[in-house]
Amino acid sequence: MWIISRISAHDLNLFIGASTVAAAVATLCAPSFLPGRNALMAAGAVTGITETATGIDGPALAMVFQHYRAPALRSTIALCFAIGEALSLVMLSATGQITGDKFMSALFLVSPVIIGAWISQHVHQRLNARVLRVSMMAFAIVSSADILYQTLSS
């Protein structure tokens, strides 16, 4: 919350978008690795900041867990998202950032999330580790590029 209160949304979106694109491209080119404790802690901190500030919570986690086996990767990231979303909602509520309009808008997203979870139960077995990794990094790049585009065009 300190970062959000000190840096303009425009500048924060530019920084997060550009650094995420650069990091995703770099990790796609890097050799396989298993993250240590420091990398996991950094990814958690970055995820908390980016999720609360911009709504992007996946790229840092995807980058740090990208070489895990697919079932471990999916379940670990899903749990991190659930905990992170709950903490972000608590922090945003505590600082008065959640209004009735924003809450109602969020309710409209519940159905797509449920549908996506149902579809994933049938699709995830067809994705091998390499396809899953490249898909995650591509999604990180596209979502971050979208943040950059929206920020620069406004």
Counted up, domains total 1
Structure class: mainly alpha
Q: Say how many strands there are.
A: 0
- Could you estimate the helical fraction of the residues in percent? over 70%
Strand fraction equals under 5%
Shape: globular
How far from one another are the termini? 24 Å
Report the radius of gyration as a whole number of Å: 16 Å
Which regions are unreliable across 5 or more consecutive residues at pLDDT < 50?
none
Work out the helix count. Answer: 8
Task: Output the helix-strand order.
Answer: HHHHHHHH
In round numbers, the mean pLDDT is: 82
What kind of sheet is the major sheet? none
What does this structure look like?
The structure is a single chain. The protein is mainly alpha-helical. The protein has helices at 2-6, 9-29, 37-54, 59-65, 70-94, 100-107, 110-123, 129-153. The mean pLDDT is 82.
What key phrases describe this protein's structure?
8 helices; mainly alpha; 154 residues; single chain
SSE inventory with pairings:
Blueprint: H1 2-6, H2 9-29, H3 37-54, H4 59-65, H5 70-94, H6 100-107, H7 110-123, H8 129-153
